[in-house]
Amino acid sequence: xxxxxxxxxxxxxxxxxxxxxxxxxxxxxxxxxxxxxxxxxxxxxxxxxxxxxxxxxxxxxxxxxxxxxxxxxxxxxxxxxxxxxxxxxxxxxxxxxxxxxxxxxxxxxxxxxxxxxxxxxxxxxxxx
Length: 128
Known about the structure:
mainly beta; 11 strands; seven-stranded mixed sheet; 128 residues
């Protein structure tokens, strides 16, 4: 069971990035997938999550207030990948971003302790 996060980079304020979370060894369909971020000196923060799409849930999404309207989480089940499209990026979005998977029905899940599997981080830097 492995998650691979990618897509980070350096952009100017107002720019966009798309992060990818690819799974191997299991199907993401059955899991809640969350994106977290951790800025230097700060605690890991849940940013967004998407519910499972195995028919037992509606595949709903959740965002924290600070990214609503700017970030979009989505699934591509054929590619076993979850994406986080980040638009209108701000310097305060700078952080290492992680994806994680959780199995179960509790919704939404924004606490790191609620997740079972984690990918390595990908660095997002927003600076002029």
